[in-house]
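During the no-cost extension, the postdoctoral fellow (Dr. R.K.) reprocessed legacy sequence entries with the updated structure-token encoder. One reprocessed record is reproduced below for audit purposes.
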Amino acid sequence: MKSLTLAVAVLVVIAAAVAAYAVISHRGGASQAAATSPASTPQATSAGGGSVARAGSLSDCGSPAVAVVYAEGQEQLAEKMAELLSQQVKGDVPPGTRFCVVPVAGAPGLREARVLPLILVKASNVSGRLAKTLLNTSIVDGWRPVRYDVDAVFAVQVAYHYRLKERPLYHYKAELVVVQGHIPVTRADVKAIERDKAFLDLVAAVAATGISNVTEAEPGSVPLPRGAALPTLLYHSNQNLSAGVPSLKSLGDGYYTLTSVDYSRVLLGRGYVEAREVPVNPPLALLASRPSVGKGSVGIAIFEDFMCPFCARLYNETMPYLLQLAEQGKVRIYFLDLLIHANVKQVVELHRLLDCYYARTHNSTGYLHAVEEIYRVVWRDMSLIQSRRAGTDKLLRDLDNLYKELSKRLNASPDCPEATSALGLGDSLAKLYGIRGTPGFLAWRNGTGFVVVTEGFRTKQFFQKLVAELENAPAATSGKK
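Re-encoded structure tokens follow.
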């Protein structure tokens, strides 16, 4: 694990804090946990740090110094935080800097601090890295606080890593508002969010705000940032939550959004929702250059990588149903490249080969049949690999042989400019819609004003729901301004 330190870019600290607890589709094609609990956050380095002093007051710490001010019952958490700081910011503060813990009774005026434990720095010369985390204000006798959100995230990570019962205390409170999507598959499970106390700890920490309760709102009933994907989370409070937390932006009417985290991705990753909504029209002009089957009113674009085991599973278990819908005139399916295994020669060559074949022939059926053949090989070999009856080398040999066979049968070559354009299109659209793994999906019906986005293997039952919901979806309304 990498060491946990405050002296990193602020937005990285905040975004990583939430993302570390999210289940994110990885770029190898499977939806997998980035961490099973917040206890998986980075741990302390062993680089020699100084000792931590227990001081009765801030003045006892002297100067230069780094102090952790704590409330009653937070002693152990504060000491662990100070211990880590003494190890990790030693090079960011002047030589001889003391590290101490101070009860809030010994820090006049801090009983109602935005967050406790509160990290304070009193030094005239700190590194640029550490300076990025400090608020540009002195709250008492020359002591400058670390940004409240960074402070709280650090405290929560320390608490979970060391399995401490203590948590940060927040002076500001807010209602956590789950702004739902327009159709059932993009509506988050609010009850599941309420039950996940560890997740709520992090959601509170990145805003340095205590969560009083969790509620939900319909799209259009509350202000939203422009282009916000749904479902998302907002903070609602009559206090100025942006003070000391620059990444919290006021939307008006007491609503705040966290600009450094896409909560729609976090909710999808945590399994609280099946898909996200992005409020844009589908990229039909760009998709016109790609192979497609069917002529339905619902469009589905599939991002795939020819060595992705979950793509192979999709073709084995779900694709027959999707092709049935295409034959019935209910959906149009587009096929997009998203090279996850871009360093595997056989995979790159197969993608380029089929892209060049389609560019020459515009034969979507022939393209699809070749893709199905590739995934049959991947599905078979992955089963052997999982049962330890074969190694990855067998899959690579079989893909290499299949490439040679398809080259002759399709009379195709991977060397054409259209293949480079096709690979670039898939990568660009994946970035635009926030897709990071395969299989990935875009789905839409013209006129709704949004595109549904999801990742990872999906079942026949999921697409049954999705298609039916899109067919019946009303036009999306814009958020309240």
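The chain has three domains: 10-161, 172-276, 284-471. Residues 10-161 form one domain. The remaining legacy entries will be reprocessed before the final report is submitted.
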